[in-house]
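Subgroup meeting minutes
Present: P.N., E.W., G.H.
Scribe: E.W.

1. P.N. recapped why we're keeping a running log of single-chain structure predictions: easier to compare across weeks, and new members can see raw inputs and outputs side by side.
2. G.H. added today's entry (365 aa).
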Amino acid sequence: MSSLELFKGARVLITGHTGFKGSWLSIWMKYLGADVTGISIDVPSEPSHFNAANLQDTLNDYRIDVRDGDALKSLIKEVKPDFVFHLAAQSLVRRSYIEPKVTWDTNTMGTINVLEALRELDNECVAILITSDKCYDNVEWVWGYRETDAMGGADPYSASKGAAELAIRSYIKSFFLQDGNIRIGVGRAGNVIGGGDWAEDRIVPDSMQAWAKNESVILRNTNATRPWQHVLEPLSGYITLAMELKEDSNLHGEPFNFGPPAHQNHSVGKLVAEMGKYWDQVQWDDLSDQYEGPYESGLLKLNCDKALHNLKWQALWGFEETVRETALWYRTYYNNPTVSIENFSISQVKEYMKTAKERGLTWAQ
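Output recorded in log:
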């Protein structure tokens, strides 16, 4: 496997760089010495990790909507990226019921616009296209979904991600040959937590904002079970996939799941209780019996054996570590305003990389 030195001086383009995962990936790529160009329609929340870390001052920051195919294509052709990480999306299930067309246009057509731009690149490029664990047709079974399982989804968000997967597969079969200059990999992950997420209707930012003001957080479904993982876990998977794909054309077109071990499934109630250990005053109101909102899946987890076998990738942080690092990030943000958020985020990246190296993961050696 290539060393992480592969990214030093490389032209890396990230769509959705102002978002939760995109901002963390931007920080990580900058730390590795990459020349980072970011494309986003806007900063999705206030506060935001992107603004808190002053990332607009450390990378090439462009405001482009992935639904604008011409603008996207023009910039990608100008940048001539060595690596593309496509994360831009309308990522909220509940919002997808309110704005279904925006969700479909962004998640499905936005991905097609990225693929169209890649078709016109004449330089070598590795592109990692990120969809979601919710791209699978969730039938609520107890075992993890594998990369060969059916695509689908009941809500507009999940369906749009499944459709994006079908579009990616079609483009790979039709336009991107294995011996061509473009190599494409697909990453699927979900239920990511970590510092710097302020998206609406998410349990971690809702709790952190409430407790920072000594207020109570409202819980919609305390029994909903999720395979919670820290944001750095799937990002390390995307990075590993990019490194391996650069070396091995046999991985071209392959999708990979990135998630925690099968046993690391915990309820919302357990997550909130664990987070509460790191705050002085915690309160919550369980309104599970009164919830009458749109459908949300009760259980969805991934089988990540393929990533372990082909990429030698596995998740590193257990549930307690994941929650601790998340809570400490928010406590630092809210209680220590003089601390550089960029530096604190980098310190968590470095700690994660140190753990990976100690445990012998090849990508970190």
